[in-house]
Amino acid sequence: KADAQPVPEWLCGLRLEQYCHTFSEAGLKTLWECRELTAAQLERMGVALPGHRKRILRSLQKLLPSERGMEGEMEREGEGWEEDRPVPRERTKFRAVSPPTPAPRPRPENLSLKETASKQQSGEKPSPVSPSFHLYEQCSSPGQAEMGAPPLPPKSYAVGSYKEPKVTPRTRPPCRPPIPPRATVSSKTMPLPKKCTFYILPSDGAVVATPGAPEGSKGSHRWVKLDADYLRYFDSEKDVYSKRIIPTSSITGVANVGDQKFEVVTHNRIFLFRAESDSERNEWVSVLQDFIGPARMRPGHELTLNPCVTSEIKGYLELRGLRSKLYTVVCGDKVFLYKNAEDYKMGIGITSIDMNVGNVKDMDKRAFDLTTPYRTFNFVAETDQLKEQWMEAMRDSIAEALSNYEVAEKIWAEPANQKCADCGTTKPEWAAINLGVVFCKRCAGEHRSLGPSISKVRSLKMDKKVWTDNLIQLFLVLGNERANQFWAANVPPSEALSPTSSSEERRRYIIAKYREGKYRRYHPLFGNQGELDNALCINVQSSDVCETLALVFCGADVNCETGVPDLPSPSVLAAFHGQNLQVEFLTLNRNTETKVAMHPEHYIPLPSITHNGFLFKTASMARPITERKNKEEFSRRWCVLNDGQFNYYESDKNATPNGGLKMREIVCLVVNPPETHGYDHSFEIYSDAERLYLFGTDNPETMREWVKSIAKSFIPAYAEELLQQDFERIGRLRYKDPLNLESSRVGWFCLAASTLHVCLEDSHGQDSIDLQKLLELSRDSEVLVLVERGRTLYIEGERKLDFHGWVAAIQRAAGSSGDTLSQQQLTEGDIPVIVERCIHYITQYGLTSEGIYRKSGVNSKIAALLEAFRRDARSVWLKEGEQQVDDVTNVLKRFFRDIEEGLFSQEAPTVTDESKRISQYQHLFNSLPRVNKATLRTLVNHLYCVQRFAELNQMNLHNLAIVFGPTLFQTDGKDYNAGRVVEDLIQHYVIIFHVNQHQLKRQLDEITYIIKLRDNLNPKTGPASGDFICTVYLEEKKETAEQHVKIPATMTAAELTFEILDRRKMSVKEKDYWCCFEISEKEETERPLHYQERVLPIVHSLGVDSHLLVKKHYNMEAMLVYLASKVDMTKHGMLKFKEERSLLGLTTGSFNDRYFMLNHTSLRLYKDVRVSACVCSNRPEKEWPVKCLKVYQGIKKKLRPPTWYLCCDTQTEMREWFATFLSIQVRSNSRATSRSAPLDTRMGNVSLIPLRGNENEMRNSVAAFIADPLAVSLISQSQNDMFIALTIIQSF
User: Fold this and answer.
1) What is the per-residue DSSP string for 590-601?
2) Which of 329, 495, 522, 1191 lies at a 20 to 30 A Cα distance from 271?
3) Under DSSP, is residue 106 helix (H, G, I), strand (E, B) or coil?
C-alpha cells in the first residue's frame, strides 16, 4: 500500500535521498505520516531548494490524492495563479492527526488567526486608520499590548472616531490561539485570486474624498488583489508595484462594519476597506472568512509574523524621492520594502520586487540602481562598504531567480560533491569540467584566472547546455573525494584552505594545486613518456576514469598514437570499447596544458602542432603599426598550421594558399591588448624577413588557441618553460655577456607584465629580470642595456622592426605601471626609487635646514619634479644647486599623499596602554605588503634621523608628527590619531622595527660627519653671498601688492615671476601670459625682461624711481600672430626719429622722418626710401649693433646721451616694430644662460601656447614658432600710452 511506503524508499525514488536523515529527525517514517506536509514545513525542516519542495509535494499529491487539498499550496510554490481561474471544489476535511512539530522555519507560511464572529455581532467599530501617503499607509493598532505584539510608534496625527451609536468594546483573548498550517484550507472555498477596486478609508476625516468615490466617502481609491500569499493594494489596476502588502498568514479576522465597508484585522493593525456595493463587500468578506475560517479549527504551530526571515541582507536604505529611509530585505529571489523594522517584524510591507527581471547598476558615490522593466529604484546606502554588500546580495538574488537547480541537484547527488573541492564550502555551484572537481563561487574566481587552458569553469545552475548526461555521470563517478585523492594527496595542513580563507590564500593554493601540480599524487610511471602513453591506451578501454585522470595530468598525451591504424587516438579507442565517460574526459582535456617536469632521459619531442580556423588578416607590412586598424582593413582568411608551416587561404575550400611562412622564420609573437584594433583581440607575427603580419578575431578563446599553437611551433624545446607565462611578447633576440662582448649569442625572451623571462643557450632553465628594479635601462644605438645589481645584459637588435617593438615594450614595462606603491619603479630593497632618492638628497643637503618639511617650495617646480619621477624615476638625479631642499621635501610629501591605497592597509591601533600599542604596531608592520613594509621602515628611519638633529632644523618629534600624520594616512588633517601614530612610530622606532642599535649609531655618526664637512666647506657668515632683498609688485604699485623677495645671484626673471604668483596663489587662465617688467615711474618707461635674464644685475641698476613689476601681456596673442606670419625676422619702414644731444647741459633735437631697416645684426637709418633701396652702394647715415641696444616703451625725459626716440603712427605699428626688435635681440643675446628654463603657460612659452583652428593651421603655427622659441617671452606693450614711442639706449 502506498501510504505505508517507508520514507527512505520514497525519497530514493525521487532522487532526494539526502533528506532521509532530515525526515527521520522530524519523526516521519512512512508516507502516511507525510500526508499533511506543506512547503513551509519542508523549508523549516531544511529542504531549502524550491525545486525539491515542489517535487516532494507533487509526489504526495499523486500518491495520496484523497488525503490532500494541495492545489493552493502547489500554486504558491509554482509560477502563480491564473487571472480567471474558476472556483475550486469544496475543501476536503482532514482527520484530526497532528503533524510533527518541526524546527522553526525560515519562511513561515501560517499565522494564528482570530475569531471574528462574536466581534461582528457586537457591532464594534474599527480603530482609526491614518491617511495614505506615497508608497505606504499607516494603520491603527488597538489592543496590541494585550496580544503581545510590539508597541507601535506614537501617531503623528489626531485620532478621531465615527459618529455612530456606542457599542460594546471588542475584547481580545489573553493569548493568541494556535493556528494550523495554511495548507489545510480547502481551495474550493477560496476563489483566488480575487481583484477589485476599493476605497481605503481614514477615520479622522482629514482626507478629501477621492474623485469618483461614492458620495460621502473619504479615502484613497485603490486596486486590491488577493492571492495565496498576500493581500495587496495598488494605486491603479495597471501598477506592478503595490502600496501595501499584507501577508494572508497574518490576517486574524474579517468583519462587516457598515455600509459597503469591512475591516481586515491583523496582529497589530486594522485595515478598513469600502467596496463599490454591498454585494461586492459581502463577496470579499465571504472569501476572506472562508480563507481564514478552517485555519482556526485546527491546532497549529508557533506563530511567525514575517515570511522573510531567511534574508540574505536586511537594513535601511534611502530611496531617492522619499524623505525617510525604507527597511529593505533581500530574500531569495525577491526584494521587499518595509516602512520600518517594526513593520518588517509584523510582516506588513510596502511592495515586493521580483528579481528575475531586475538588474543592478553601480552609480556615483554610495548610490546604486535596481532596474526593472517597470521602474528604476534609486537606492543610497549609508557607506561604500554597505553599498557593495547590498549590490552583491541583489546580484545573488538575480542569479537565484534565474538559476536552474536541475543540474546542481544531480551533481550534488554524489555526497562528496556537496562540498567545495578546494575550501570545503557547502553547496558548491561551479565546476572545472576538465579537472573533474566542483567548487564554490569564491574559488571559481581563482580558477578563471588560471585560464581555460588549465581550468574550464562552468556553472551548475546557468550553463545547462554544457551539462550533457555523460558529463553529469562523469562527475558522479569521479566526485570531489576521488578527484582530490589525486589533486590534493600531499597538501600540508598549513597550506590547506578553509571556507574563511582570503582571496590571496585561495589564489596561491589553486595555482599550486592545478597549475604547478604541487600536491598531486605522482603516478609510478611519471617521467617515462612512452610508458605513460601506453598505459593510457590500455586504461581507456576500461571504466576506470580516476586512473585516466592520474595518467593525463602526470604527462600522458591524450593525442598519442595507439599503434592501431583504425583506432589512431585514445579517444577513438575508448569509443570503440563503449567507454563513453572516458571519451568525454579525453575530449575535455584535448587542449589542456599540464605542467610536467620531464626527466631528460625520457623526454621525446612533442608531436607536430596542428591547428586551423578562420582569422582576419591585414596586408603584411615592413614598418611598425602606429595607428589603429579598422575592421574594414582586415580580410577573412582560412588559416592552417601544420608540419611547421603556417598558410592562409582565401576560404576553406581553396587548395592554393594566398601566402604563408615557416615556423622557423618567426622571430617574435606579440599579443596586443584588447580593443587595440577593430577586432577586439589581435596578435602580430614578425618574421626574419622584416615583415609584420597582423591577425584579429572577436573571440578571445580563438585568439588564445592560435597564440598557444603558434608559440609552441617556433619556440625550441629548451625554452618551452616560457610558454607557461601569460606573455604579451615572446621571441628570440641576440645578447652579449659582459665577460664576452665580442660575440653575441641567441636567446629566447618572454615579456609578462613587468618581468622579462629569459632562456639562454648555455643556461639550464629560465631566468627572470624584474624590470621595475633595474638600476639602469639605456639604449646605445642598436643595443639595449639592462643593469641589475651584479649583472648586466646587452640585448642586440638583429632586425630593426621587432627590436624597436621590444625596446618600447621593455621601457614601458620598466616604468611605473600605476599609482600604488607596488607599481612604482623599485630599488633592490623594494623601496620606490622616488622615496629613496628624495631621502638621500635630504640627508645629504637638508638635515640642517630650519623648518624642513614645514616650509613650502615653489609649486611649479614641485609639480615638474614629481611628474619627472612618475614618468621615469630611474632617470631623475637630484643635484645640489639644481633642486632646492624645500622642493624635494614637498615632492616626497605629495607622493605619499597622492599614492593610491595609502601606505597603511588597515587602521592603526587606538589603545591607551603604551606596551599594548607597541605590540599592535609590530603586528601592523608585519601584516603590511612587502613594498609597504620596506617603504615604511625607510621613511620612519629617515624621520628618526631628522628629529635627532632637531637643535639644528627645529623639527622635533611633535612637529614631524603634525606634518606626516595627515600625509601618510591621507586624512587632510581631520584625524588627530594619525599624528599620534606617526609620533609613536618615530619615538619607538628601535623597538617596533627591531633595529640594530650599533648600525643605527653608525648611521647617525655618518650624518654628523657629513654636516660638519659641509659646514667646513661652506661656513655660515650670514646671508648667502650676492643675495639681495628687493620689493616686487604684482600688477600695480601699491602697498597691498608688494612682495619682499630675496634675490640670489642665479635667480632668473622666470623664477621670480613664478615665486610671486605662487606666493599670492594666483590662478592662471588659458590665455594669460605673465612677465617681469623693469618700470621707471618718473620717465614713464618700461622694459620686459627675458625669462632667462638674471634679475640681480637689473636690481642693482634700478634708480630711485624704478621698480620691478609682474603683470600680464595683454596683447601677447596679437604679437604671436604677427611673428607667426613672418618668414624672415626683418622689418623696415618710415619712422619719426629724434636724437637727444646735450649742449651746455641742455637737451636739443626735434623729430624727423627717417627710413629704418632692422635685420639680425643691426639697426640702420637712411634719410629716405630711395637711398635705402641702394643698400649695396650707399652707406646708412647711422648704424647700431642690435646687441648693444636696450629698448623701452614710453618716453624717457632725462637720460644721458646717446639716446634716440623712434615714434610710430599707430599702436599696431609700434607693436610690430617692438616685437621684431626684441625677437632679433633675444636670438643674438649673449646674456641668455645655458640653463633651460621651465616651461609654463604663465610665461607665454611657445610650446604651451593654446592652438586653435584646423590641423593644418596648427601645424603652420607650430612650425613658425619653432623657428624662434625665445621671442615670445620678451614681447610686451604698455597700455593707454599718451604718446606711442620706442626709446633706444646704447650700451657701452
Assistant:
1) SS--------GG
2) 329
3) coil
Q: In whole angstroms, what separates CA 836 from the centre of its chain? A: 29
Q: Cβ-count burial of 877 within 10 angstroms (0-12 exposed, 13-18 middle, 19+ buried)?
A: exposed
Say whether the peptide bond before residue 1202 is cis (omega within 30 degrees of 0): yes
Q: Please name the helix (run of DSSP H) or strand (run of DSSP E) that holds residue 1207, with its range, or none.
A: strand 1203-1207
Helix (H) and strand (E) counts in the chain: 35, 46
Burial of 226 (0-12, 13-18, 19+ CB in 10 A): buried
Distance (Å, whole) CA 473 – CA 417 = 12
* HSE-up (13 A, CA, CB side) for residue 871: 8
Enter the DSSP assignment of 1238: P
Segment 348-377, tens digit of pLDDT: 888 989 888 888 888 888 899 999 888 889
How far apart CA 1041 and CA 925 sit, in angstroms, is: 50
In three-state secondary structure terms, 1137 is: strand
Contact 584, 470 (CB under 8 A): yes
DSSP letters of 311-337?
-SEEEEEEETT-SSEEEEEEETTEEEE
Q: What's the burial of 262, exposed, middle or buried (CB within 10 Å: 0-12/13-18/19+)?
A: buried
What is the H or E stretch that residue 744 is in? strand 740-752
Q: Is the dihedral of CA 93, 96, 97, 99 positive or negative?
A: positive
3-class secondary-structure state, position 221? strand
Strand ranges, E, within 966-1105: 1028-1034, 1042-1047, 1074-1080, 1085-1088
- Residue 240 in grid coordinates: 506592478
Reply yes or no on whether the pLDDT at 773 is more than 50: yes
Read off the C-alpha cell for 826. 623599485
862-to-175, 834, 885, 1062 alpha-carbon distances in Å = 77, 13, 11, 12
Name the phi and psi angles at 784, rounded to 5.
-105, 125
Report angle CA 1244, 1245, 1246 to the nearest 5 degrees. 115
By CB atoms closer than 10 A (0-12, 13-18, 19+), residue 775 is middle
Phi, psi of 967 (to 5 degrees): -70, -50
801, 624 in Cβ contact below 8 A?
yes
DSSP 179: B
pLDDT in tens, 1173-1218: 554 446 788 888 887 777 877 755 544 445 667 777 787 888 888 8
CA distance to 282, 575, 1132, 1288, per residue, from 1179 (Å): 125, 109, 16, 21
Q: Nearest-CA neighbor of 418 among 435, 438, 402, 432?
A: 438
Query: Which DSSP symbol is given to 511?
Result: I
- What is the C-alpha end-to-end distance of the chain, expressed in Å? 130
- Residue 318 sits at φ, ψ, to 5 deg, of -85, 130
Task: Write down the pLDDT at residue 972.
Answer: 65
List 233's β-bridge partners, or say none: 224, 244
For CA atoms 875, 876, 878, 883, give the dihedral sign. positive
Quickly tell me which residue has 592560435 as its cell: 706
Q: Can you give the pTM of this predicted structure?
A: 0.38
With CA atoms as reference, report the closest residue to 903 among 993, 988, 822: 822
Q: Nearest CA to 487 among 436, 429, 540, 430?
A: 436
